[in-house]
Amino acid sequence: MNRNRLLSVLKKYDYIEVFILLVIVSLVLMSRTSYYQSSKIVAWTNNIAGNWYQGINSIGGYFGLKGENDRLAAENAQLRAQLASSYLSYNDSVFVVNDTTYRQRYSYTEARVIKNSWSQQNNYIMINKGSAHGIEPDMAVISPEGIVGVVMSVSTNFSTIMPVLHSDSRNSVKVRRTGISGSLVWDGLDYRYAQIIDVPTTHKFEADDTIITSGLANDFPEGIPVGYVKDAENLSGSGFYRVRIRLATDFNKLDHVYIINNHFREEQEKLMEKTILNEEK
After folding, report:
1. Phi, psi at residue 33, to the nearest 5°?
2. SS3 236
3. Whether 110 contacts 77, CB under 8 Å
4. Across-strand partners of 162?
5. Could you tell me what percentage of the chain is helix, strand and coil, using 3-state DSSP and rounding each to the nearest 5?
6. DSSP states of 200-223
7. Are 38 and 26 in contact (CB under 8 A)?
8. In terms of C-beta density within 10 A (0-12 exposed, 13-18 middle, 19 or more buried), how is residue 241 classed?
9. 134 φ, ψ to 5°?
10. How many Cα atoms are found within 13 Å in the side-chain-facing hemisphere of 107?
11. What is the pLDDT of residue 217?
12. What is the DSSP pairing of strand 159-163 with strand 147-154?
């Protein structure tokens, strides 16, 4: 290529592009003429490539984490459904043959929280599962850590939940150590704490006593973690405590939840309605 032809080629391209081209040519020539320079260039390019792929893998891992979390949540729902507390035990003795069978009482559906509030007097949560997934109003909702609330309204693909962080929320709970029952309420002040009321002062609490669901209602199974006792106030003249607890569930970080289906709920409610009607007659 003669001098005039080279100049005409250079004029065709932007100076920056020409500069980059000349740098590349220089690097190629250096790598061919010097082993030391060649090794340095190879190390430099390998370093750039390594950082690039590491960044790609980190980004891929981040986006892949959502799918992994969803998979683990679904797996946990299946495991919860296999717990002994999710079954009713029937022990029927016929002559000398003991026939013990089990019928599943609770099943679990995992869902993701897509909207959440925790700083209002009356908070609500929305999840990405609805009637198309078998969700119905009044079903209990828990997190991997503990109690969350109860399903309020359902559409085809979404549901809203009244969490324990709501002024109208009432749940039957008990102290794991003693079995003493009370009602879980919220005062609307701090999403990390709730209160237990209707506990007689004849019973004593210990710091960090574990509070669990009592299983007395038709929604939550017995033994779901609720929180841990911080202090107990003797309400003067009432004969009852107001117990302050730290909630097991961190509502500020709520992501995956489990909706609990009590397969005997309808039967229990009909029996209770029948009992009340009989008393009124």
Report:
1. -100, -15
2. coil
3. yes
4. 150
5. 35, 35, 30
6. ETTS---TTPEEEE-S-SSSSPTT
7. no
8. buried
9. 85, 10
10. 8
11. 79
12. antiparallel
| Six token digits for residue 167 | 């002024």
Q: Which of 197, 225, 193, 212 is nearest to 118 (CA)?
A: 193
End-to-end CA distance of the chain: 112
Question: How many alpha carbons fall within 13 Å on the CB side of residue 24?
Answer: 6
Cα–Cα dist 160/150, whole Å? 9
Q: Which residue in 190, 208, 184 sits closest to 251, CA to CA? A: 190
Q: Quick one: which H or E segment has residue 243?
A: strand 240-247
Tokens 């599943």 belong to residue: 104
Q: What's the farthest any 2 CA atoms get from each other in the chain?
A: 115
pTM score of the predicted model: 0.65
pLDDT at 132 > cutoff 60: yes
What sign for the dihedral angle of Cα 90, 182, 121, 256?
A: negative
- Per-residue pLDDT of 17-68, as tens digits, reads 555 555 565 655 555 555 445 545 544 554 454 454 445 445 544 555 555 5
- Cα–chain center distance at 16: 53
pLDDT tens per residue, range 81-115 = 555 444 444 333 333 333 344 567 888 999 999 99
User: Do residues 164 and 171 make contact, with C-beta atoms less than 8 angstroms apart?
Assistant: yes
| Whole-number Å distance between alpha carbons of 69 and 62 | 11
Q: Tokens 């911080």 map to which residue?
A: 230
